[in-house]
Amino acid sequence: MLKWALAVVFVASPLPSAAEQPLRLTLEARHQQTAYHQWQLEQWRSRMDAPLSRFISDPDRRYALLTRLYHEAHLAGLPPNLVLALIQVESAFKADAMSSAGAVGLMQIMPFWVEELGLPIDDLTEPNRNLRYGCTILAHYLAVERGDFTRALARYNGSLGQTWYPERVLKTWRDYWR
Question: For the chain, how far is it from start to end, CA to CA, in angstroms?
Answer without folding.
Answer: 58
